[in-house]
Structure formats: structure tokens, C-alpha cells
Amino acid sequence: MSVTWHLDDDALDSYVAGSAPPALAASVEAHVLACAGCRERLVPAVALPRLDRIWDDVVERIDAPVPRPVERLLLRLGVRDDTARLLAATPSLRAAWFLSVFAVLGLALLSAHATDRGVVVFLALAPLLPVAGVAMSYSPLTDPVHELATAAPYSSLRLLVVRSAAVLTATVLLAGAAAMLLPGASWLAVAWLLPALALTAGTLALSTWFEPLHSALGLATLWLAVTAPAFAPNSDPLLVVRSGAQLACLAVLVVALGTVAVRRDAFSLSMGRSV
Question: Global pTM?
Fold first, then answer.
């Protein structure tokens, strides 16, 4: 298109209206770059609100954050945008955390196959993995968006429970898959699950008084102290997962969930938020 001629009114009107065919639109744009006269005709013909909408759309697309793989997966599963964003920022759902979980489970499995009492290592460590994940999911020391999360228009209980549920699900699936490789009786593959749920619920319950990280550290220390006798040479290596221990874990789970329900408003205070 040469600058020795100018756009006719029909071409200009169709371009302004956005109805011009792609070839014509490209020709118009190439022409107005070199033709000052047609540019002067084009500027007043284009409505400013339309230009503003186009510009705002461009800015929004450029500035919009690119969803991470975890966030995209959650969105495909039907999770709300805001909830998916908070979950995707959870430290316990990052690659480094999963690599750590794989390493711990791998070492525990090697120990279980190496010695007669090695299964105790797995049964002692597997229930602590979701507890560690929950502690990391809402701690200012490990959460890079902790300030944003605490300022979000959600209750602290919802934030912690949603993140804890995601961490618990991911960790339990990994630990459950590893437990299938344990030597010995088949019931050992699920024997660690109730202690894991009890410890996780206990962490949530104690978080109504203390920070989640401190609550998790306290319960982890207590659990390791309880499982320590199983390492003794003449003791029962499966003592911590026998029926009596399972019933005790069930009782702890029920009490912990009841505490969370009763003290749900206390989460905001224990985490530094106003109720």
C-alpha cells in the first residue's frame, strides 16, 4: 500500500469498527504507519473507551501471573481460583518438599528391609511426614507468602485446614505407596495411617494455642519418645501399631477434632490475626 493514495472511508470505518478482514486490517495498519494524513483521520474516529479497554486487556495479560503446575492442576480439578493460588503457594507442595519426602521414605524402606527391626523406622517416621508438612504450610519461617495469607479474607482455620488437607492427601498417597513395599504382614501398609491422622489433628488442635510449627515439634518429640522403646532388642517392634496403640490414636483423633471444632475462633489469635 503506497502513501501516494489514502484510505477510503469504507476501509477506515470497517477497521475502526473491528469488522475489517485480516488482510485489510493489516494493510490499513501498514499504511497509517507511513501516512500522516490517514493517521489524523483515524485518531478521532476510534472511540477512546474502546482503546482503553484494549489497553487494559493488554496490561492485564502482561501483568497476570503465570499459574504454576500445581495451581493449574487444582484449577482443572474444580478448585476456586483464590483457593488454588493459596494452595499453590504452600511450601509443603513444592518440589523440594516432595524430594525430602521421597528421601525419608526411601531410607525408611531400606532400613525396613535391612534389619528385623528396621520396620520400626518406617512406622516411626511415616506418621510424622504430614505433621511436618502441616507445620510448614502455615509458618512465617517457611511460607514466602505468609503475610498475604494472613491478610486474605478467610479465617485462619480455613486457611490452615485447606492447606493441611492438601498436604495430608499428597503425603499420605506417597507414604501409602511406599508402605506397600514393607516386608512382613500386609496390614503394616496401613498401620501407620491412624497415628498420622491423630498427629495431624493434634497439631491442628494445639495450633489453637500455639504456632503450628511449635505444635508440630512438640508432638513429633512426644511421638518419637513413645516409639523409642520399640527399638529395644527385647521389645515388640510393632508395639506402636498394635490394637491398643491404634485405639489410643483413634481417641486422640476424636478429641483433637473436637478441640478444633470448639476452639475454631482461637486460630486467628494464635496466628497473630484479629478475629
Answer: 0.62
